[in-house]
Design goal:
This protein has 154 residues and is an alpha+beta fold. It contains 4 helices and 6 strands. The protein has a single domain, classed as Thiol Ester Dehydrase, Chain A, CATH 3.10.129.
């Protein structure tokens, strides 16, 4: 998503990720990790009787996968700053494939030379539908932090 120091970024830059298919393992592991065992995610028989007719993938899992599909460069990204206006617009199902699409919409310089880069982040499925969208912000360094043998990234 962000792979250059803040002064080199431009509003309007677009990135698209590779695809990733959502699996049964993803859903079950996320249930275990979060304790979110809602039957719409975990019970196939229950889900058959719902308006979707099958289990849906947890929205928070979709967000986690989509934002990680576009790699971050830790030599320039200092911290995750926040997310706003997160919406799940369509359900995602086991077997769907998702892609991430991001566009830099705002750049706010800070006095120390760093800046906040905000991207519109969308998750798209194999049908071209937007399943998720949000405004995703990162604090970005002014210069690339270079690792040495003795100095870890900070």
């Amino acid at each position: 998503m962000i792979d250059r120091p803040f002064p080199e970024l431009e509003i309007g830059e677009v990135k698209r990720s590779r695809g990733r298919t959502l699996t049964e393992t993803d859903v079950v592991n996320f249930c275990m990790l979060t304790g979110n065992w809602l039957e719409i995610h975990a019970n196939a028989e229950f889900a058959k009787a719902t308006s979707q007719g099958e289990r849906i993938v947890q929205g928070s899992l979709i967000f986690s996968i989509v934002n990680a599909l576009l790699p971050f460069d830790s030599s320039v990204v200092q911290v995750f700053y926040g997310v706003d206006r997160l919406r799940f617009l369509k359900p995602s199902f086991i077997g769907d494939t998702v892609w991430a699409h991001s566009k830099i919409t705002e750049l706010k310089p800070r006095a120390d030379g760093t800046g906040i880069a905000t991207c519109e982040l969308q998750g798209l499925n194999q049908r071209g539908e937007t399943v998720m969208r949000c405004d995703f912000s990162l604090l970005v360094r002014a210069t690339r932090l270079l690792a040495t043998d003795n100095t870890p990234f900070s």
